[in-house]
C-alpha cells in the first residue's frame, strides 16, 4: 500500500504545481516565471523519483532479479524519452505550420488540401515516436 502512495505523490505534486502556476499567472505574474516554476517542479519530481527507489520498484513489482528490473526500467525511460521528444518536435512543427496553413486557406480556400499536408507531417513525427515507444514496451 505504501508503494502505491509513493506513486501518487509525484503525480499529485505536478498537478498542484500546475494549479499554482495558473493562479500565479492569473494574478499577474509573468508567463516566463510560471514556465520556469513548471520546469523546476518537474525537476523536483524527477529528483524525487530518482532518490526514492520504492517508486520505481512499485512500477515494476513483477521482476525477479535486480538486473531484469534495471533493464525494464531503462526500457520504460527509453519509451518515455522517445514519446516525449517526438511530441515536442511535432508540437514545434505544428506550431509553425498550422498558422501558415490557416493563413493560406483564408487567402484562397483551394489551398486547404495542399497546406493541411504540412500540418499532418508534423503530427506524423509524434505518431512515429509513440509507435517506437509501443515497440519498446512490448519487447520488455
Radius of gyration: 20 Å
What number of structural domains do the residues give? Answer: 2
Distance between the termini: 25 Å
Average predicted local confidence, pLDDT: 79
- What is the CATH C level class of the largest domain, in words? Mainly Alpha
Q: How much helical structure, as a percent, in the residues?
A: over 70%
What does this entry show, briefly?
With 140 residues, this protein is mainly alpha-helical. It has helices at residues 2-26, 31-51, 53-59, 66-107, 112-138. It has two domains: 1-59; 63-140, F1FO ATP Synthase (Up-down Bundle).
Could you describe the 3D structure shown?
With 140 residues, the chain is an all-alpha fold. The chain has 2 domains: 59 residues; 78 residues, F1F0 ATP synthase subunit C (F1FO ATP Synthase, Up-down Bundle). Helices cover 87% and strands 0% of the residues. It has 5 helices and no strands. The chain is flat. The two termini are 25 Å apart.
Quick tags:
single chain; 140 residues; mainly alpha; F1FO ATP Synthase; 2 domains; 5 helices; 0% strand
Task: Chart the SSEs and their pairings.
Layout (H helix, E strand, L loop, with lengths): L1 H25 L4 H21 L1 H7 L6 H42 L4 H27 L2
Helix pairs in contact: 1-2, 1-3, 4-5
Amino acid at each position: 500500500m505504501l508503494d502505491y502512495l509513493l506513486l501518487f505523490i509525484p503525480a499529485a505534486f505536478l498537478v498542484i504545481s500546475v494549479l499554482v502556476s495558473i493562479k500565479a499567472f492569473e494574478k499577474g505574474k509573468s508567463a516566463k516565471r510560471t514556465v520556469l516554476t513548471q520546469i523546476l517542479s518537474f525537476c523536483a519530481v524527477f529528483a524525487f523519483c530518482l532518490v526514492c527507489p520504492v517508486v520505481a520498484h512499485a512500477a515494476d513489482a513483477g521482476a525477479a532479479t535486480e538486473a531484469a528490473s534495471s533493464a525494464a526500467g531503462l526500457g520504460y525511460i527509453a519509451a518515455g524519452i522517445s514519446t516525449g521528444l517526438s511530441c515536442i518536435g511535432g508540437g514545434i512543427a505544428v506550431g509553425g505550420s498550422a498558422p501558415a496553413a490557416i493563413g493560406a486557406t483564408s487567402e484562397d480556400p483551394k489551398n486547404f488540401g495542399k497546406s493541411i499536408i504540412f500540418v499532418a507531417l508534423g503530427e506524423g513525427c509524434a505518431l512515429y515516436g509513440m509507435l517506437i515507444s509501443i515497440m519498446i514496451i512490448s519487447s520488455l
